[in-house]
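Long-time lurker, first post. I've been practising inverse folding by hand and with some scripts of my own, and I keep getting stuck on stretches where the structure tokens seem ambiguous. Below is the full token string for one chain I'm working on. Before anyone asks, I'm not after the true native sequence, just a reasonable design that respects the backbone. If someone could post their per-position residues I'd love to compare against what I wrote down in my notebook.
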């Protein structure tokens, strides 16, 4: 699905970021900050 400028409601168990993607570290940091800002708890897999 593609959405631009709209909020999406989704359920997920994991997020996969590939380290060979250009800017992967910046993407990981931005993702974590966005999750924290949204009040989404991040934890290690069980």
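-- Answer (accepted) --
I ran through it position by position. Result:
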């Amino acid at each position: 699905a593609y959405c631009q400028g709209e909020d999406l409601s989704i359920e997920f168990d994991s997020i996969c970021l590939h380290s060979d993607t250009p800017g992967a570290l910046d993407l990981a940091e931005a993702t974590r900050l966005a999750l924290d800002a949204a009040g989404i708890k991040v934890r290690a897999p069980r």
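A couple of notes from the structure itself: The longest helix spans residues 24-37. The radius of gyration is 12 Å. Happy to go over any region you disagree with.
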